[in-house]
Structure to design on (1162 residues):
């Protein structure tokens, strides 16, 4: 944990955390708009679409960042597919708040994905390609498409929340570590 | 039947028995044919799940009608039962019937049975054919039908939900509306949405909620296509471009939106380009709810709409230009065109031009050094259909030219110096970039020229350094503008001082259209008018603007210009006649666009003047008034914010006096006010000094002067006392008594004049001795016979007593201690003006000191000393008036006792004896005056005749005064 923070400034981690918070906020708004547009019940459950191990505390920092980055990558691919399907099957010609928010979320999620890629790279990991090579989803009917889009949005929210939690954990651990300078000065004093 | 016919032909000669047998056989055969109908065979079902139609086909024998029954298999409920006509399929001879289900065919299994019918004769039911639903146990998942359906507005749609095996149905929602539900089978539930409205762009969701699961369907409700305004034109005289409007919004999007085709060529929305001019076109619009077609026919040359010209260019000059362009199609070279040119600079002009294959136009009447924007559109001249598209905007700038002559005016500054001004040339007037101004001054008197070259930014020239200009000495200023193309024509103005005192001044009120100024037209005015305006507080470089008006003008409204009108600033407006030749100021106005309360308060001075307070202040400077002053309000400040209005003064007032104030501290505020309100006010406070000091000082001064005067007179009289005595106080000769008066000392019977005691002295026959009378009005006398019953205030010296004083060489003594008030008392009788000088004592002050030697000799006071009532009518009582000190000394009625009229003789005072009351009787001729008294008297109550005559000619008051003075001055 400390190595990561040595390689990446705390400011950078804070910025990525803020970006993740922004994605989560945007996604929450989008879910509200989506439920309102589609008259979906509040207690509607969603299906899990990203099957990647959660960055649990037992993993090391690099593995956690790898897991997070991969999950966000899957989310981005799903969101892209969801937008494409909606435009193809459902969208009207009018510009709506839902469409605007959806476009912003896509851009912010891509930024978050790249930012976590930067952290992963600093931690010694290898960022994934944004393009998803898995077979694209084909809905059996439009209602299933809508349920799937809802699940995609819930997945984005889940992974943005995961990103926030993980990055705050990184910040907290880094804060406990003593600064570099004091170590150096201690050594020099001992000498 | 053919067999029957054969029987009839083979047995022609049989007997009646045979005929009977034949008939019987025929009837039997006929009866058997009527009873036996063929049961429909090979019944088959064909379902169209999208259209929810079930096609039933069978082989039905000879029957013409069939009974058809459709049941829900699981609950054995009849869905359909009816007799249908047999429609035989041509290929194969099968009968067929199509049934449209209200519910989706997937909802539950259906059983179909058919039987043949001939009238009332019917066959047996065929074996049931079952259309399996999706609610079979083998298909255990949750399902909703129909899916992704598109229906027209106002239709009804039935949805069914097949519950997941083992789960529990909860509800059906259409959008957010909870629907009524009907159960079709163990797992299948249906609901129907009726008279459906337009759905949202992404459709309406129909949700089937189970206990812990959710599924649903999406339905789109919209309209079939209805395009309008279909037409085709040509731009290039070869191809066809067809347009149409989508018409009513179908509310169907994405894959469900309307698709278009023209003459079976797919087209995008709204426009389609066809390579050839077909002459006839059919537009077909299709969406899931239906289709619609439109047709159009036209000749090529009637439908020409030229494209926009391209590659515009211009050959520009200062005052005109030629614009050229190109056509992208050579076919236009032979086409008669009508083109419209839009020329825009400070305004927009449209000009039309025509010609075959038109490619250039000449544009005259342009302005030098001006940027123009040009656009061109064209149409067919012979068969004009509509204008083609505008070309791209093309900009060009005309060449420069010499500037216009500037508008020159002069302004007389406050110091009477003259400022030559000219309006800066606009870009429209300058015809190019200005390089400067040339101002030439020509003094008419001295015939001298002076030229000043100024920068283009200058618009005025102060002539302070030049020869002075007065009303007599005049000059001419000429201004020319320069640019790269040369110098403008000169503009001249006659310079001279203008008398602004004789022009009438008025106020003008700002309106939304500016300051309205109006005047009477003068027939003498042939050179027009000029209105000049500036701030009233105009410094040497203040902004001045002017406008020239025609000779017939009688009004103008002045709006914001280079002189930016601001609230609270006074502006002067001056109207000049014949401004170009010899300007004459004929009217003046002043006005505000908005009046404000004064920004400067009066400088209040406060002074005390006696008991008054005088407030004074100076006029507020013009810049601080910010409006036309309506007056001043004078307030007295009682508390911190409690103002009491004392007066509202006219604006000319500069002082105000607050009168009759008591000694205290006062605070006053004077506020100037305009129509917009009062200023904050100038405040001053004053603490008033005792304002009675001056009065006291005046009184003291007066007293001092009187004292000095008295002293001077006294000294004079003392110095000249002999003369005074001789003149005013001669010795009184002793009376010469004819009888033996000295021995007989009885009371002198004096017969007073019947009307008044004072008349006594009018009797010249009376002689006076040295002794005079001291009259003591008797108290009892008044008590008993007082005039009326008026109460007598014993505290007040109401009664005077006169004692006869003996004028001798002895000093006058004693005097009563409080005799300082002794004075002459002039009792103005009704008949006589006589002065008695004597000692007056109040009744209360008749206290005789016991050690008074003088008194002990001749006068022994006692309690009963008085002119008693018993003595009334006797003796002499000349001064026995009841005199109230504060009242009227001249009693209207002389107090004369009736008895006194009858008294006899006169008894000199020196021989008067004090008679005891007991000694007197009613017949006693003389009243008792108490004990014998030797009293020095300075009075001359009974002068001799001559002196009496003299004395009657003299005023008595002065004599009294001098008598007293001398008496007091006697040693």
């Amino acid at each position: 944990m400390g190595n990561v923070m040595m390689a990446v400034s705390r400011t950078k981690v804070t910025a990525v955390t803020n970006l993740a918070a922004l994605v989560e906020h945007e996604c929450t708004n989008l879910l509200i708009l989506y439920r309102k547009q589609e008259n979906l019940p509040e207690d509607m459950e969603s299906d899990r679409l990203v099957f990647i191990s959660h960055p649990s505390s037992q993993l090391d920092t690099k593995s956690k960042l790898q897991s997070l980055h991969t999950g966000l990558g899957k989310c981005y691919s799903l969101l892209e597919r969801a937008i494409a399907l909606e435009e193809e099957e459902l969208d009207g010609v009018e510009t709506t708040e839902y469409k605007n928010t959806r476009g912003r979320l896509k851009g912010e999620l891509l930024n978050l994905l790249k930012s976590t890629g930067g952290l992963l790279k600093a931690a010694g990991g290898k960022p994934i390609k944004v393009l998803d090579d898995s077979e694209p989803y084909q809905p059996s009917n439009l209602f299933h498409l809508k349920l799937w889009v809802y699940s995609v949005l819930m997945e984005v929210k889940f992974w943005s929340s995961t990103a926030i939690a993980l990055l705050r954990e990184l910040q907290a651990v880094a804060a406990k570590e003593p600064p570099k300078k004091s170590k150096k000065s201690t050594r020099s004093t001992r000498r | 039947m053919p067999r029957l016919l054969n029987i009839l032909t083979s047995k022609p000669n049989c007997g009646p028995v045979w005929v009977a047998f034949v008939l019987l056989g025929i009837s039997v055969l006929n009866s058997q044919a009527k009873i036996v109908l063929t049961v429909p065979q090979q019944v088959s079902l064909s379902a169209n799940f999208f259209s929810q139609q079930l096609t039933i086909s069978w082989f039905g024998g000879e029957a013409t009608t069939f009974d058809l029954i459709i049941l829900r298999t699981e609950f054995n409920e009849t869905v359909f039962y009816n007799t249908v006509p047999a429609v035989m399929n041509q290929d194969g001879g099968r009968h067929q019937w199509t049934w449209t289900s209200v519910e989706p065919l997937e909802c539950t299994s259906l059983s179909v049975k058919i039987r043949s019918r001939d009238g009332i004769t019917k066959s047996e039911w065929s074996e049931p054919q079952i259309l399996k639903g999706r609610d079979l146990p083998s298909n255990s998942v949750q399902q909703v039908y129909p899916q992704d359906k598109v229906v027209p507005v106002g239709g009804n749609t039935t949805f069914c939900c097949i519950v997941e095996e083992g789960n529990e149905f909860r509800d059906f929602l259409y959008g957010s509306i909870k629907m009524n539900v009907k159960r079709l089978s163990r797992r299948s539930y249906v609901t129907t949405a009726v008279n459906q409205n337009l759905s949202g762009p992404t459709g309406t969701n129909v949700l089937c909620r189970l206990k812990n699961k959710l599924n649903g369907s999406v339905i789109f409700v919209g309209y079939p296509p209805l395009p309008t305004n279909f037409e085709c034109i040509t731009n290039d005289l070869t191809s066809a471009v067809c347009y149409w409007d989508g018409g009513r919004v179908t509310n169907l999007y994405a894959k469900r939106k309307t698709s278009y085709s023209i003459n079976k060529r797919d087209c995008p929305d709204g426009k389609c380009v066809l390579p050839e001019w077909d002459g006839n076109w059919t537009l077909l619009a299709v969406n899931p709810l239906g289709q619609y077609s439109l047709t159009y026919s036209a000749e090529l040359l009637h439908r020409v709409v030229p494209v926009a010209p391209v590659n515009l260019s211009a050959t520009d000059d200062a005052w005109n230009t030629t614009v050229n362009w190109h056509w992208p199609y050579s076919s236009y070279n032979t086409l008669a065109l009508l083109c419209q040119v839009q020329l825009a600079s400070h305004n927009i002009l449209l000009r039309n031009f025509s010609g075959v294959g038109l490619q250039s136009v000449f544009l005259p009447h342009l302005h030098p050094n001006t940027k123009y924007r040009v656009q061109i559109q064209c149409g067919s001249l012979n068969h004009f259909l509509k204008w083609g598209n505008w070309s791209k905007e093309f900009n060009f700038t005309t060449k420069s030219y010499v500037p216009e002559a500037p508008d020159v005016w002069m302004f007389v500054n406050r110091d009477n110096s003259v400022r030559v001004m000219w309006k800066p040339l606009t870009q429209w007037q300058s015809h190019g970039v200005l390089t400067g101004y040339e101002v030439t001054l020509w003094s008419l008197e001295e015939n001298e020229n002076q030229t000043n070259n100024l920068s283009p930014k200058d618009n005025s020239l102060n002539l302070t350094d030049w020869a002075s200009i007065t009303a007599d000495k005049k000059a001419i200023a000429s201004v020319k503008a320069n640019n790269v193309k040369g110098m403008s024509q000169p503009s001249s103005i006659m310079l001279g001082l203008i008398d602004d005192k004789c022009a009438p001044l008025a106020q003008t009120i700002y309106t939304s259209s500016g300051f309205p100024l109006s005047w009477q037209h003068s027939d003498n005015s042939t050179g027009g008018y000029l209105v000049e305006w500036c701030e009233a507080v105009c410094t040497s470089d203040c902004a001045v603007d002017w406008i020239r008006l025609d000779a017939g003008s009688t009004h103008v409204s002045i709006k914001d210009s280079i002189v930016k009108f601001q609230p609270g600033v006074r502006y002067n407006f001056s109207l000049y006649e014949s401004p170009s030749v010899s300007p004459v100021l004929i009217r003046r106005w002043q006005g505000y666009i908005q009046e404000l309360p004064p920004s400067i308060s009066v400088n209040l001075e406060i002074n005390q003047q006696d008991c008054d307070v005088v407030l004074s202040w100076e006029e507020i400077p013009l810049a601080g008034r910010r409006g036309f002053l309506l007056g001043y309000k004078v307030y007295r400040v009682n508390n911190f914010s409690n103002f009491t209005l004392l007066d509202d003064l006219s604006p000319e007032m500069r002082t105000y006096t607050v009168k009759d104030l008591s000694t205290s501290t006062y605070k006053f505020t004077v506020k100037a006010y305009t129509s917009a309100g009062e200023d904050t006010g100038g405040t001053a406070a004053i603490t008033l000094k005792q304002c009675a000091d001056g009065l006291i000082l005046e009184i003291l001064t007066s007293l001092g002067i009187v004292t000095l005067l008295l002293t001077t007179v006294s000294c004079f009289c003392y110095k000249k006392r002999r003369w005074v005595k001789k003149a005013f106080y001669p010795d009184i000769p002793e009376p010469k008594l004819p009888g033996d008066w000295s021995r007989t000392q009885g009371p002198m019977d004096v017969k007073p004049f019947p009307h008044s005691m004072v008349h006594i002295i009018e009797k010249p026959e009376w002689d006076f001795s040295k002794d005079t009378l001291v009259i003591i009005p008797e108290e009892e006398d008044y008590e008993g016979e007082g005039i009326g019953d008026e109460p007598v205030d014993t505290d007040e010296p109401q009664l005077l007593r006169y004692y006869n004083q003996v004028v001798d060489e002895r000093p006058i003594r004693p005097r009563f201690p409080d005799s300082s008030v002794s004075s002459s008392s002039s009792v103005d009788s009704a008949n006589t003006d006589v002065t008695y000088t004597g000692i007056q004592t109040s009744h209360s002050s008749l206290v005789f000191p016991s050690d008074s030697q003088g008194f002990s000799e001749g006068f022994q006071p006692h309690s009963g000393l008085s002119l008693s009532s018993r003595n009334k009518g006797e003796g002499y009582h000349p001064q026995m008036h009841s005199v109230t000190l504060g009242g009227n000394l001249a009693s209207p009625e002389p107090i004369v006792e009736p008895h006194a009229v009858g008294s006899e003789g006169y008894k000199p005072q020196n021989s008067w004896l004090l008679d005891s009351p007991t000694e007197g009787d009613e017949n006693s001729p003389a009243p008792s005056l108490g004990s014998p008294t030797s009293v020095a008297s300075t009075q001359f109550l009974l002068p001799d005749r001559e002196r009496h005559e003299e004395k009657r000619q003299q005023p008595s008051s002065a004599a009294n005064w001098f008598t007293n003075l001398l008496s007091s001055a006697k040693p």
Observations:
- The helical segments of chain A are 2-7, 10-38, 61-89, 97-122, 142-176, 180-190.
- Chain A has one domain: 2-176.
- Chain A has a mean pLDDT of 85.
- Chain A has six helices and no strands.
